[in-house]
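Researcher: If convenient, please comment on what follows.
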Amino acid sequence: MLAQVGNLTIYERVYKGAQIDLGSIDAQVSVTLWYSGIPSAGQQLIIAQPSFKYEDFMANYTQKVVQRALIAFDGMNSLSSLNLTGGLTKSQAVYQYNPSFSN
């Protein structure tokens, strides 16, 4: 559970394990789910956000790795059956809940 701010309680679940081959580096894929209550079969999902990350501690990214990361990102965005047009990001959902969140 994330810390409560402005009377907003979010229950977060993160599922990890899949990888994307970017060439010399593998990206770690995760899906983050946000719920307004303890996740259960009847609980409505607020946000589902897929993401991937990769890093090289020496920041020695080849052009091939960067190009493949962009292809993977564009590919995830093009999955129209999985993307809610006009859907909110996690930050947008928090600010929509309480516009004075950052005050």
Summary: The radius of gyration is 17 Å. The first strand starts at residue 11 and ends at 21. The chain has a mean pLDDT of 81. The CA atoms of residues 25 and 58 lie 12 Å apart.
